[in-house]
Specification:
Layout (H helix, E strand, L loop, with lengths): L1 E2 L4 E5 L3 E6 L16 H12 L6 E2 L8 E7 L2 H9 L1 H4 E11 L6 E10 L5 E3 L6 E12 L3 E8 L6 H8 L22 E9 L6 E5 L14
Parallel strand pairs: 5-11
Antiparallel strand pairs: 1-2, 2-3, 3-5, 4-5, 6-10, 6-11, 7-8, 7-9, 9-10, 11-12
Length: 222
């Protein structure tokens, strides 16, 4: 694992660049922010090696979510990954620090999600929304918090954040979806593991990003 100024490289070869994105950094540019992005950092990193190198984003994480992000070094690979992402991404594991404790230690949240014009995602009926399947398992818990391992079977925007809210356990720092606590000044959601099948070689590749230590802080003995 290589640590640069603002980003940590998990894996790199001739075709792929996999990065552990910090919380608070956009994956790609928005109307308000063009330069302070993970894409910009990755592009500058490759350009220092060769001015002709290009980089393509395969998928993205929310600004406030940390963890694994995959870039392709050629457009052909990028398109192949994106066209079959739900098939190629065999495992998409996250960890979240949430308020409270789910009623069941493990289970699945099934919902149908839709997004408003102001980018707020909400639950709706099967007729109007897209299916979201979120599996979860409680790893640690106390009176105030729980550390939860999450596997998503679909890749809907904000599906984990809504799933945790539906369990009455909003993610710490997620004011948008019901959290009243933010002691760590970040959204406590982290993409920790990705098992990806290379679309051309069919090789199964596993990438991991260590859980932020701050997620474990509420469970330390005082």
């Amino acid at each position: 694992m290589t640590k640069l100024k603002k980003m940590t490289i998990i894996y790199e070869d001739k075709e792929l660049l996999v990065i552990n994105k910090p919380s608070g950094l956009l994956t790609i540019a928005s109307e308000k922010e063009k330069l302070r992005t993970l894409y910009h950092e990755a592009r500058e990193y490759l350009k220092k090696q060769n001015p002709h190198h290009k980089i393509f984003i395969v998928h993205r994480l929310d600004k406030d979510t940390s963890g694994i992000v995959v870039f392709a070094k050629n457009e052909k690979l990028k398109k192949a990954c994106q066209n079959s992402w739900n098939t190629l991404a065999k495992t998409r594991e996250y960890h979240a620090l949430v308020s409270g404790k789910p009623k069941n230690k493990s289970g699945q949240v099934k919902s149908y999600l839709k997004e408003t014009k102001t980018f707020q995602v909400y639950n709706t009926s099967e007729k109007f929304g897209k299916l979201a399947l979120t599996n979860y398992e409680v790893l640690k818990s106390n009176k105030e918090y729980s550390l939860i391992k999450i596997n998503i079977l679909t890749g809907r925007k904000s599906q984990i954040r809504l799933a945790m809210r539906d369990l009455n356990c909003p993610i710490v720092g997620d004011k948008k979806y019901g959290s009243l606590k933010n002691p760590y000044r970040r959204l406590c959601l982290h993409a920790s593991k990705l098992v990806l099948v290379h679309p051309f070689t069919k090789k199964e590749m596993t990438f991991t990003a260590e859980i932020p230590k701050i997620f474990l802080k509420p469970f330390e003995e005082k």
